[in-house]
Fold these 2 entries.
Entry 1:
Amino acid sequence: MNISWPRSSLTSLVEPVVYIHENSIEILSPGLQSGGFALSHHLGMTQNLPSTSSVAGSAPVRAVDVIRKKRDGQELSVGEIQALVQGYTSGEIPDYQAAAWLMAGLLRGFNRAETAALTDAMLRSGEVLDLSEFSPKKVDKHSTGGVGDKTSLVLAPVVAAGGLLVPMISGRGLGHTGGTLDKLESIPGFNVNLPVQEFRRVLRGCGCCMIGQTAEIAPADRKLYALRDVTATVESPYLICASIMSKKLAEGIDALVLDVKTGSGAFMKKEEDAVFLAELMVETGERMGKKVVALITDMDQPLGVKVGNALEVEEVLEVLQGEGPADLRELCIELAGWMFELGGAVTSLEEGRQRAVQMIDSGRGLAKFREMVKLQGGDLATIEDPKKLPQARHTLEVLSPENGYVSAIACEAVGTACVILGGGREKKEDSVDPAVGIVLHKKVGDAVSAREPMATIHYNAEPRADRAKMLIQGSYRISGAPPEAARPLLHRVIRGSGGKN
Ligand code: URA
């Protein structure tokens, strides 16, 4: 799908004044409320922020009016956004109204004040953690979503082994992309639904912990995320920014590395859209006093060779053992390098990369992964022997129709094939099948002979496998010559104030 983002709304409206204080944000906009309206939000302590579903002195907000206003391309006030988010989180606003509002927002866009207000309202839906009892710097990484993107599972233990604290709140599969939580849950017993006290206990025990949004932390994102997954309302830079940054700002971190994907398997297909999203998120994080960097990285073909929940855990273990596909290892080292650098564990990015390599090659990252799995209730036998992870009952090979070279892989189709196999959700209530997925034997640039397997589908239901096979077959483009130039894994780096390196 190609959406042209409604960016005009960023500049066509009366621009609000956004005051940036340390750990707080204040928005003043004549367009928002008569006489101006201020929203001030302070971070830094564990707090249950006050309920503000209606703004003092203003009339109660009706969901249908907010939907209509956004449908007609008008700017929403802070109060309207707060009321929508609060009402949906508490259950007063039903799924169908929230879905209509999300679709209106996706099609019409949001301006900077609305995006800030949405992020803030989602953040305020739960607690902001105070992790000051922990002396190491707290860092995290978040990806905008990809196919075969399993870097979080490598990074949390590697960076914790290297001396920093990694309190990671992740998401489930979204659209055609896989989700960290679904991958972790393919390890039998692994609990991603820990309450805050348990989250702290695991952090104390091993320096990293990976959970999902909870009733306590980012509950608004927990609900909106699940709804967006199945209502085709993911691909909005404003909604992605609010979703990611509300969770990340709730974690009590000092620094954040964002992996913003671009290419045929990303939500932002065009690099300029990825840069726009990256700048939006970097700006939001810095406004809240965090060190943030965004790496624009390639998602024009799956990352690594395994796509699917348990299959991806298997590949994570390969990387943690110093093996695994080169692209996955390289991206993990790059992202970990930035995490070490932003967290102040090293004095240069190059030293950060070296620290990551040391943590992998010495086995300390793998040992840390084991500790985390144990503390979160996972079955360690599956880590010792990945064949004990859930396995699909059947496999099916996808053969090349001709001799040649793989010149492209339609990456979104591979992700969709995995969802169709049962590795993702088509409805909110669906459970995922941890065992299914795809193993790619050929990637872009590889030579292939007629009838040679390009990929293997791991499946449990034949009709699903047939549909997935058609998608995978159609996703490979075979040419007579190899592609002239390989796309780089790292496209560019976006640092503070919209500055680019
Ligand atoms: N990751 C998130 O957490 N949220 C999004 O909207 C997209 C990717």
Entry 2:
Amino acid sequence: MCGIVAHVGSRDCVPILLEGLAQLEYRGYDSAGLAVANRSGGLRVHKAKTRVAGLGSSLPARFKGGPGIGHTRWATHGEPNDINAHPHVVGPVAVVHNGIIENADELRAKLIAEGAEFVSETDSEVLAHLIARAGGYLPGSSGDDLREAGDDLRGGSDLRGGGGDLRGGGDGARGGGGDLRGARGGLEEAVRQALTAVVGTYGIAVLDARYPDRIVAARNGSPVALGIGDKEMFVASDVAALVRYTRQVVHLDDGEVATVRADGFHTSTLDARTTTHEPSLIEADLRAYSADGYTHFMRKEIHEQPRTVERALRGRLEERFHTAHLGGLNIDARQARAIRRVKILGCGSAYYAGEVGAQLIEELARIPADAEAASEFRYRNPVVEADTLYIAVSQSGETHDTLAAVRELKRKGGRVIGVVNAVGTAIARECEGGVYLHAGPEISVTSTKTFTATCVVFSLLALHLGRIHDLSPADGARVIAGLHALPGQVTEILGQEERIAELAKDLAGYHGMFFVGRVRGWPIAREGAQKLKEVSYLHAEAYPASELKHGPLALVGPDLPTVAIVPEDELRDKNISTLGEIKARRGRILAVGHGTLDPRLADDVVEVPKNEPELDPILLSVPLQLLAYHAAVTLGNDVDKPRNLAKSVTVE
Ligand code: G6P
């Protein structure tokens, strides 16, 4: 989704903003823009419906300065165009905003009645008006000249003239609301005041030409991190934009405002109570943010999986007791014994990984467990039970629906732990404890390595709970041996890429596909279908193999192939009879599983190394990732930036 980058320091901020925005491209966007304070006390603004590289190359040579704010926009209110792109500028104030202002229409009408003139269709422009007003800027003052200059922006041009004119407006307004002498002063107060009128979600960065030493940022439901540099500071909606410059970050909490200057920052609540933060260290390898010789991040991340699995396991197996040790759970053995039910919540691939997790917990720990889409759970007034362990799953740690589900649970007294990849993020902070995936940043919108890492973490959790409940030491040892075998087995599957690519090329010629699986294979079929849809745009429908005959079989025929998950387990015969049902209708079948199959039953087979039955799903999903990837490549799609999708959905 939208991305924010801001910088305060003595150097020219423009290259930093452009580099930061480029790092956020993976999140998905449709337009981009920058605003910087120039030396003569004005603002320069440049924004357009373009890629970040296009924005950079179209900047006039004199477009330099600082502090500055930058943005990549994902349209919600108003179509993607130059005018709707951020920053939004009103008088001396420029604002970039992620999130959705729910009462924007009402506020806009009120502001218009008071004389404000809007140029865009966005909800975000409301913020710029509110902040400018709260900061003492009045429409009709010399700042109006700026708006005229702003109109030139339609062509994506520079706001030079406006910047110059701003000086007058700025000086006038300083007396009205600003206090440059105080450490934080007028801009922070103006932002605070403006935000009290707003209902909705936001992550914002605000620049005011009258305060050329600071950026004010605020968060409510949309992530904002401060990056601490050497006599310079950064603000970003995603640490990916910061890692090149600093490893020290502070994640703002909801309802917090920060004033950021070159020499430090100050955070407080919306009602002006000072808050404190210990900076945390981002443990990111810079290579994780580059495609490192691969054509796409998706392929790179698929190939990282043997290491991802190793990292998820590292230091967590307690061979002596045939169990797993998960330090951050904050649940002792007695409390674990008292757990009567487990409910796992997540969205998209996190939800499907949660389904794998629920089966693992039920199988190994014999605790009733299920997974549900967090986006549904949060709205259905769920019954929250004291002896249920709730688990929120999220790669980004910022998915709005999952965060809302966590908060709803906490409000009702539920106990929630997290299975999260991105360290220190909102979901991780809201939970009482949990387990990090340690999968490193996932850049491809389509989740691959974090799906696998989540399943591995659930195996550990299931083993841990199982050994506290009734899993025998022998079974514990069996699962541990299976976990040790996983990295090598993933490598073996990756070795079959060429053949899977050939199959994908062929299957990409169909208009869609069925994915079927039974019990352990069912979430894998769902995730496989999701992967294919996301990147190839082919229609893909997942069905429990057992349900095929209850309706969807009507669609099976020579023009609709089926990908069938056929592991070597107690349900193999059942799966084989499903293949027979499909074959009887002349449907093409790609079977993904173990052992050989009668060629009359499956046109093609991808053989996956056999692990323990409970752990097999982890391996079965890997060929489906490769299938989706190569189908998308065959169809010429932009694999890392699939249409209409964002890496992390931080809005409703
Ligand atoms: C978006 C992405 C999905 C992802 C889901 C959950 O919808 O497009 O690929 O699985 O969010 O993301 P999370 O960061 O919470 O795991």
